[in-house]
Each structure stands twice: as C-alpha cells, then as structure tokens.
Amino acid sequence: MSIPTLAITLGDVAGIGPEITAKALLGHDELRARCVPVVVGDEGAMRRAVSATGGDPAAVRVIDTPADAANTPGVIELLQTGPSLADVPIGELSAAAGDGAYRFVVEACRLARDGQVDAIVTPPLNKAAMHAGGHKWPGHTELLAHEFGVENFSLVLSAGDLYFFHLTTHVSLRQAIENITPERTRNVLDLAGAFTAALGRPDEAIGLAGLNPHAGENRLFGDEDADILAPAVEAARGRGINAHGPLPADALIPAAVKGKWNMVIACYHDQGHAPFKAVYGDDGVNITVGLPVVRVSVDHGTAFDIAGQGIAREASLVLAIERAAELAPGWDHVWQTAQKTAQQTSQQTAS
C-alpha cells in the first residue's frame, strides 16, 4: 500500500518550528513507515535548527518536487520556498519570518491543490509577525480556508480519541456571539457527523456546549441556546446525526475529559481552547475539518523565549504528523460533506 505524502511547513523560522521539525524527522524514524514527510520552508533556517539540536546540517537535502523525496531515515527533504531566511534573528519578531511563514503555507496549499501532497502539517507561525510581513490573516486556519476557497470549516482540537470542534475561533467574543447562527451551527454539526463517519464511528454521540452559563437555564441567562442551538441539534438528529445539547459547558467538557464524550462542539475559542490546553498540553493537535485535504497543526505557539536553544519539545508535531497520516486516506468523505453543506447554505441564502 502507498503511504501519504505530507507537506510540513516550517512555520516562523524565528521560533521553534525549525527545531521541532528537525527533532521530529531526525529522531523518529518510525514516522517513515506511515508517511513521506516533505518540508516546505527554508534551507538555511533548517540547517541552523539541525545544528542547534545536535545534528549534522548535511542531513538537509533540497529537492525540486515532492515526487523527488526518497523518504530516507536521517535525511530531511526540503522544498526551498522564496529567498533565504538564514539570517533572520532567532527569538525576535520579524516581518521577514512572518512573510516566510505565509509563503510556506501558500506553497503547501498549491502542492495539495495540484495533487502533489496528501496532507499539510503546520508547525507554529506568529500572527503578529505575519501581519508585519503584510499578510493580515487571523491565523493558519483562516489562511488555509482562503487558499482552498472554502467557507464551511471548523478548527478541531484533538487528543487521542477526543475532538473539540468550534463554532467560532479567532474573533472577539462579541463577534463570536453574532457569528453563531442557525446556518453555522448546522454546518458544524454536519462536519462533525461526517468526521465521525470518516473515523468509522457514524453513530458517535456529539455534544454541543451551550453558549451561555447553564446553557441559558431556560432563558434566564440568554436566548441563544433555546433559539439557535437547540433547534439545530434537533434538526441534526433528524438528518441521522447523533447530536445532543446544548449542554452546560461546565458539565460537558469535564465529562469529555473523563471519557464520556469523544466529540464536543464548543461555541467560541476560549470555551474549547482553555480547558483543552490546560488538560492536554503537548498531547494535543489542531485539525482543520472542511478543507479538501487534511491539515493538522501543533497546538502551541512559536515560543520565542526558548527558540534556538534546542530544548523545544517535538511531541505535538510528532502527533500531528501521525494524525495527518492516519486521516489522509479517508478524508474525501469529510470534504464532500463540507461541500454539500456549503451548497445548501448558498441555496438557502439565495432563496
């Protein structure tokens, strides 16, 4: 059987992205049996990181296309993307590094659209640096959605068999409340249902967290749970999705951590991210559901304070690579569902 080819973007080269990439690809040969990793980044930054982590810079091999990758243990095969970033200062906010991180993602998307890679794995970029480089995106997720031309997508945090979908992410809390519409809620419920099916668990229970305290407590603390979330759940159940809620977040999320739920939908960024990161740390990854190819990311930032010291932990990146390789073969069903729900939304808006 063939194994998927993964484009691993280097992230912000002033941060720990290059170091964790070096550690993952040179210290975990077992990954080679599951995928063909191809780094999309910068040769100079990659060689510098290999040196910082105690390796031989000669391990970096520049190739022209993903098809040229030999997948040899002990070798990092890299596609040079744009001008050299070897002189970017480590541990400092840099417009050049931000521009580079943007270019790496755009190139990885092009390779995926052209069918040259089967999945994208992303070490961290720095949003302020990317903005300084002239690219005003809230983060990886929104940039990827733009590059693939999709509107129906969800950021999903994952640790083991636990998945946290999000109705909204990188917007203010006020904007998040406005963005929680019947259409958006329906679309994410459908994405979650398709995702469980792709995992081979179509009857998996999906718990939707309430937006307000106590899921509104019979409208005592807001109407959104009763007027938007509850009808969306009922309609999803009518479509064959095993959805439940809205459920009080302070009950649902602890129960999920204890293994009583594997699929959770959070209403806004910190409702999902804060408890997830508090519990799982480096054991979590970030998946974007709704793209035509798998995208998995580490669940941490650029860590400028320790960059260049060779001490950054690669555990989250290794998990991201493993998860991308696992999901890639069955991803088409998730993508087809995302397209279907986007078409339904467009038709309803037009009518």
Automatic annotation (TrEMBL):
It holds the Pfam family PdxA. It comes from the Bacteria. Transmembrane segments: none annotated. Its EC number is 1.1.1.262. One of its GO terms (molecular function) is 4-hydroxythreonine-4-phosphate dehydrogenase activity. The keyword Oxidoreductase applies. PANTHER family: 4-HYDROXYTHREONINE-4-PHOSPHATE DEHYDROGENASE, D-THREONATE 4-PHOSPHATE DEHYDROGENASE. Belongs to the PdxA family. PdxA2 subfamily. This is 4-hydroxythreonine-4-phosphate dehydrogenase PdxA. The gene is pdxA.
